[in-house]
């Protein structure tokens, strides 16, 4: 029975647009015009925003009715202090908000529970079943009566070492709204006080609930200022420009095996939780592909059964299901995204389960991004060790429908 | 026998680093330090730069020895005027430089020929066989003696229509070096003179030799200023921040078929030339996946032959080869990148050949990027028609080894 609960609230698209246009000193009326100009539906945005707000109020009221002290926090206000204060954290939004809420919780006994505040529009794999969005008191009663199961979702930890590394995280959401710019003077002044750069291994101050992605970015400005602004990286607000298909060069070692040079559109290392997310979309096969593959096998005289849609569907499902595993299993699944194989670059194993993945960057302007929300520069000379420690597990609950 | 040839020269990584650090007012010595700090090898960069420069000189000398007038142009200097002036265009670099050289040539009888100036490090699929890099006079003689075959590489043209569209191209390379920023004042002033926005269809001033990619970007600043700065978009220098896996929403119609809602990491539509490039990496299957698929089929009792590596390899090769087709075939191949399938979004056909693809954007901050070099905003309300017109073919030559 928690006495203090922090409710982390999603920033709706409506609020986001409002904020970013306010940066430009525009009025609500201007905002309407701008959205119209972009062909976007102002009324629709406002409607989704209202639905979300209503659902948040329902959650907060239900908690207060139980005599629970509630703190409502937005992305920007959510910090370690709030987490220390709370006995439990509830995320009110979608999976993105759940990832945010989890990102600051390092205590494996402090429950984090997700409530999907826009079930019609978002999936909410990490949230309670949709019905509890509208009947949250019922969820509370079940929790009180112990009619649930604890679930410890394994998370990934990262160590960074090598030359030219910078263990300072950058918040990709914050940074989206930034308008700040760094002048030449600014850069030169900063350039005077460089620190030395041989260091590590640093345990990075984040845990990945879904995945870690390593890939090349296109931002020359980012690369430069990340080098120049080590001591107060945040103030630099680099712009991330992720390449569409600029290749990433790196060396990879799986489970302390030999290092292998690779070139690809990036590397994804996920948890069981993340195996249902981006990793799944990277690796799943389509009926169409399976059908073509089996047709070819048939042509080579190795299929005796007539190729029917039923078989294709069965094979497709079995294959795709083999990509999923329990969030509680302390193992990772890595996948090379769009590997480039040529005379220089092999790619013997493009995916697989692993307990440890080490990556040596050969990139120019690369980033290591955790759950799509926090980024670290990862350039030539840096080495990342990616692994699971059961101490990092996230405590959450399972309620049946 | 051309009397005037324009040689389009690659900007080497060394030059690129030089330029971008010069923006920060840094000296050559500072540059060395910065690259060292990033763990990059200054000497190595300089070495590649020298090799490239040597090879360019060889090409230019060979041309001048034949009494041909030569204009050496860098990316920034290369324009329509140069193309009009030249009887033929030679790209001296890698595939990227070839794409740049081709991008300004709309005359299907003006040959564009690629020479790979760093064969040890780059593939150069679009370039002459590597040996001619060092013996360019021999290539010239063969051309003069007619010992070659003309090759017309088909290209994609784009029409843009709808609300809030902006047919102004943005050069992604240029823009990488930009330091410009737009103040609030600037934005508001601009905001006064908006143009109306119902328009189209516009034939866009580019032709895709490799592919057209449509995907969501993460740049709020870009979206805003692209709306605000229609009349002189270039001066706005928006920053592109391509999302790692932010989903793109759009509707697609293939060969004038029904519209289908989709959600994915983007859409790639390529030519035969591009079928060997990014599209291939998106669609090819790995031995590992084929092996697992055949194992599953075997489990379902439909494989009679023992599963050996030879069969797996054969099936894999056949499947992957089926993804490639001739640059001269006037057809396109589309692929949905990492499609997201759920109760809302179907994805019946994830890839296939097509003569016409229409896409209606439901994106917030999306872009349509041509050959990874030129980008157009493509937000909610915009409709793109993607097709091949044989009039747009690029004239190039085939020389055997």
TrEMBL record, chains A, B:
Record localization: Mitochondrion
Reactions accelerated catalytically: NAD(+) + ATP = ADP + NADP(+) + H(+)
GO MF annotation terms: ATP binding; NAD+ kinase activity
Class of this enzyme: transferase
SUPFAM superfamilies per record: NAD kinase/diacylglycerol kinase-like
A Pfam family it matches: NAD_kinase
UniProt keyword list: Acetylation, ATP-binding, Kinase, Mitochondrion, NAD, NADP, Nucleotide-binding, Phosphoprotein, Transferase, Transit peptide
Swiss-Prot/TrEMBL GO biological process terms: NAD+ metabolic process; NADP+ biosynthetic process
Principal subcellular localization: mitochondrion
Entry GO terms, CC: mitochondrial matrix
PANTHER family registered for this protein in UniProt: NAD KINASE 2, MITOCHONDRIAL, PTHR13158
Stated name of the protein: NAD kinase 2, mitochondrial
Gene: Nadk2
């Amino acid at each position: 029975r928690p006495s203090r609960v922090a409710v982390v609230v999603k920033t709706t698209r409506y609020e986001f647009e409002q904020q970013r246009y306010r940066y430009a000193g525009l009025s609500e009326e201007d905002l309407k015009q701008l959205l119209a100009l972009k062909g976007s539906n102002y009324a629709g945005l406002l409607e989704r925003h209202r639905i979300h707000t209503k659902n948040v109020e329902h959650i907060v009221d239900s908690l207060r009715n139980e005599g629970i002290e509630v703190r409502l926090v937005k992305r920007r206000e959510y910090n370690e202090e709030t987490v220390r204060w709370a006995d439990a954290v509830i995320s009110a939004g979608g999976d993105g908000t759940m990832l945010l809420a989890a990102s600051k919780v390092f205590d494996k006994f402090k429950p984090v529970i997700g409530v999907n505040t826009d079930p019609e529009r978002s999936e909410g794999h990490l949230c309670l079943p949709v019905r509890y969005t509208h009947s949250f008191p019922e969820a509370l009663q079940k929790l009180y009566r112990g009619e649930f199961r604890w679930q410890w979702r394994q998370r990934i930890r990262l160590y960074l070492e090598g030359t030219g590394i910078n263990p300072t995280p950058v918040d990709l959401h914050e940074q989206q709204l930034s308008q700040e710019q760094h002048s030449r003077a600014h850069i030169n002044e900063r350039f005077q006080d460089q620190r030395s750069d041989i260091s590590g291994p640093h345990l990075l101050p984040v845990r990945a609930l879904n995945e870690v992605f390593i890939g090349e970015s296109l931002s020359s400005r980012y690369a430069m200022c990340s080098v120049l602004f080590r001591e107060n990286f945040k103030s630099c607000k680099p712009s991330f420009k992720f390449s569409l298909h600029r290749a990433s060069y790196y060396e990879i070692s799986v489970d302390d095996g030999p290092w292998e040079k690779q070139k690809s559109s990036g590397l994804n290392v996920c948890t069981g939780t993340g195996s249902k997310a981006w990793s799944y979309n990277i690796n799943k096969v389509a009926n169409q592909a399976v059908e073509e593959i089996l047709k070819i096998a048939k042509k080579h005289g190795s299929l005796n059964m007539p190729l029917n849609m039923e078989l294709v569907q069965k094979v497709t499902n079995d294959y795709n299901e083999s990509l999923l595993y329990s969030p509680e299993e302390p193992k990772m699944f890595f996948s090379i995204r769009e590997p480039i194989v040529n005379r220089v670059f092999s790619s013997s194993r493009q995916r697989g389960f692993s307990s440890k993945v080490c990556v040596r960057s050969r990139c120019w302007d690369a980033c290591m991004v955790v759950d799509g929300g926090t980024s670290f520069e990862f350039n030539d000379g840096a080495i990342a060790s990616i692994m699971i420690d059961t101490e990092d597990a996230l405590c959450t609950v399972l309620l049946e429908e």
